[in-house]
Design brief:
The protein is of the alpha/beta class. The chain has 7 helices and 10 strands. Helix 2 packs parallel to helix 3. The structure holds flavin mononucleotide (FMN).
Length: about 260
């Protein structure tokens, strides 16, 4: 089939998913357009993706699920049987039902999901897990797979739907209790409020966080220029300990087509 355009669509609060998606899309000659689902102000309903556009759609795994705002935003996009490669980035624990949930959501939006990837990235909360990933080997493997998918799409007339791991009803996820707060040294610059994917930080009082709205994605912690946004240290230690056993072994990326 003929592909006229490449679009990278991703929700990536701390940049791990974005890295994986960009690596997978590197092999296309034309520079891809990017739709950054992390931006809370964009009207995603204005995007209509044509059938001759190849998309790479990436989300992180939060509790083995697609983060709710990413799901809502993808559902607003309209696609015209556009071939898609779906991706989940996860912090070396597991991605459980994330790919299946993403596949079903993308299918409803009109994409034909023909390949999928789960890739290990640094865990954005407990950063001692998945540290440094995607590393050189991961990047080589992902770039190779991007090429394989590209060749297959260009050669084939009809695309088949990929099968991925996961089961429905999806794993229950009700969030984590780690909500970042600004400590002493906050200059109220407002960057965290502007960058928050769910507008959980008031622009005029950015020391506060609306705990109900916050999805604990850690973006505010990462972007804070003063490095004064943090989560509760005791809870963070407990979370690290809980994950120690399951995260001990280096997980492999999984490539589906
Ligand atoms: C709220 C939250 C929940 C997470 N849940 C999981 C999980 O269930 N399994 C896992 O392996 N990693 C989990 N992670 C780690 C992320 O999937 C991983 O760090 C990912 O790279 C984050 O994507 P980003 O860098 O694009 O923001 C979680 C991270 C956050 C913030």
């Amino acid at each position: 089939m003929k592909i006229e355009k490449i679009v990278l669509i991703y929700f990536s609060p701390t940049g791990g998913t974005q890295k994986v998606v960009r690596t997978l899309g590197k092999c296309w000659e034309s520079k891809p357009q990017e739709i950054d689902l992390t931006d809370s102000k964009t009207e995603y309903g204005r995007y209509h993706v044509s059938g001759d556009t190849f998309c790479i759609i990436g989300v992180p795994s939060f509790g083995g699920r697609v983060p709710a705002p990413a799901l809502e935003r993808i559902a607003k996009i309209r696609a015209d049987k556009s071939p898609a490669l779906i991706v989940t980035a996860y912090g070396n624990r597991d991605y459980d039902d994330t790919l299946l949930e993403l596949k079903e959501c993308a299918g409803k939006a009109g994409f034909c999901v023909t390949a999928a990837v789960s890739a290990v990235t640094e865990h954005s909360i407990t950063r001692q897990y998945g540290t440094g990933r995607p590393d050189k080997n991961d990047r080589r493997q992902l770039a190779e797979f991007g090429k394989t998918v590209r060749e297959r799409i260009l050669k084939s007339e009809d695309l088949t739907e990929v099968r991925v791991k996961g089961s429905s009803p999806y794993r229950k996820y009700s969030g984590v209790p780690l909500k970042p707060k600004a400590g002493r040294g906050c200059t109220q610059c407002g960057l965290c409020a502007r960058k928050c994917p769910v507008s959980a930080i008031p622009v005029d009082n950015c020391r506060k966080t609306d705990r109900k709205t916050c999805i604990s994605c850690m973006r505010c912690v990462q972007v804070c220029p003063q490095k004064v946004r943090t989560v509760n240290g005791v809870l963070l230690k407990i979370a690290g300990r809980k994950l120690r056993k399951v995260c001990r072994i280096r997980k492999q990326n999984e490539l589906y087509q």
